[in-house]
Amino acid sequence: MPVSLDGLLRRERALFLQSHPLSAAAYREAGRHLFGGVPMTWMNKTAGGFPLYLDGAHGARVTDIDGHEYVDLCLGDTGAMAGHSPEPVVAAVRRRFGEQGGATVMLPTTDAARVGAELSRRFGLPLWSFSLTATDANRWAIRLARAVTGRPKILVNSYCYHGSVDEVLLVVDPSGRAVSREGNVGAPVDPVLTSRVVEFNDLGALARELSHGDVAAVLMEPALTNIGIVLPEPGYLDGVRALTREHGTLLIIDETHTFSAGPGGCTAAWNLDPDVLTIGKAIGGGVPSGGYGLSAGLAARIEALEGLDLVDMGGVGGTLAGNALSVAAMRATLEEVLTDEAFARMHALAARFADGVQDVITRYALPWSITTLGARAEYRFTPSPPRTGGESHAASDPALDDYLHLYLANRGILLTPFHNMALMCPATTEADVDLHHEIFEAAAAELSR
Ligand code: PMP
């Protein structure tokens, strides 16, 4: 009799519990004083019923407290795209925090201008400001856009994610209406009042929504990466830029994940021309970092505005933003780790990853597809890659996700929770990718029995 997905999942959960007694015990203990039993509640997103506890991580390898070693294709959901604790970043952190001393002094260091120059070279935007997270970069970009345009609304794509930013937590429902995202926690007001939302790749809907004349900025990823990967169709991004210009709306491109597309993200790879570019996660090589780049024109418009408090409590800024440690880590990451050469290797590995997964999909006749964006690849349970966030959402299968994540974790491979995403870092090897294929094929074979 064929084993059901339910049965396979039960078996994998039992194996996970049996082989991770120390993580299970640590989780039980943590429940006494940590809300939800975890340092941050999203860590409860785990296929096995409890999280693995980290012992250490170097390059593309993670070890847990039960002594298992993993090939890490999750890489902190892009936060560790430079690899874990890359040597140049470790050295920069040691130097800045240890030898020279001083992380958060309320004084600039000369590293910051170097980072600004390097980000300008890569992404094309000339003027930069820093944050500690991509969420804050987006929040502050939104405030600046509202200030400059005098317009109230922000437009996003359905099933986007840009961090816990109030204005982005809405979707297009199956009847085509904008509605708050399910489970939206304590929204200050219904996001439908602050935002407009359209499906990715839908220029007609974008034109319709912008024609109201009340949208300060479109905030978007150049390819969706938080509902599988949804790539732009030919002409779509040019259309977005033309429509935003036509309607006096600013374009904010969030490259936090799409940075995988190359040293200058999709913006450089595809010749995009945003007014603002936001980024976080990987650029600090594991040290909290983020920032936004402004076009010269927009920077001049902001500076010309009277009465904006950009120095004190005006709503843009954070005490530790741009701190010396974060900036030193960004400099080392950009100058020495996530280099052009590293991206070329990472892209070749992601292509190898996608080819191997596609081969298994074909041989086992699975109704799945895989999409690649530079150094990242993600499979989705739909025969052809989705065109919109809504289509991709409809192809979700949480039980199948859990089964694959657990099957792989039980055999030494970590995929990204919330995704079926695999990311390559400079330390990932062909052997790592091939090991994934071997185990992925075994998981597929069990499903097809
Ligand atoms: N932008 C994008 C595209 C993201 O995927 C995320 C997080 N997954 C964020 C912003 C927010 O990043 P953080 O939680 O590090 O602030």
Care to give the gist of this entry?
With 449 residues, the protein is α/β, with parallel strands linked by helices.
Description:
The structure is a single chain. The chain has 449 residues and is of the alpha/beta class. The chain has 2 domains: 5-81 and 339-448, Aspartate Aminotransferase, domain 1 (Alpha-Beta Complex), CATH 3.90.1150.10; 87-337, Aspartate Aminotransferase, domain 2. The protein has 15 helices and 16 strands. The chain has helices at 5-19, 21-30, 87-101, 111-123, 134-149, 191-194, 203-210, 236-246, 265-269, 296-304, 324-337, 340-363, 389-394, 398-409, 430-448, and strands at 54-58, 61-64, 69-72, 127-131, 153-157, 170-172, 178-180, 195-198, 215-220, 250-254, 276-280, 290-294, 369-373, 376-380, 413-414, 421-423. A 7-stranded mixed sheet has the order 4-12-11-10-9-5-8, sandwiched between helices. It has a 4-stranded mixed sheet with strand order 1-2-3-15. The chain has a 3-stranded antiparallel sheet with strand order 13-14-16, with helices on one face. Helix 3 (87-101) runs antiparallel to helix 11 and helix 14 (398-409) packs across helix 15. 4'-deoxy-4'-aminopyridoxal-5'-phosphate binds at residues 77, 133-135, 161-163, 221, 226, 254, 256-257, 280-281. It comes from Actinocorallia longicatena. InterPro entries: Aminotrans_3, PyrdxlP-dep_Trfase, PyrdxlP-dep_Trfase_major, PyrdxlP-dep_Trfase_small.
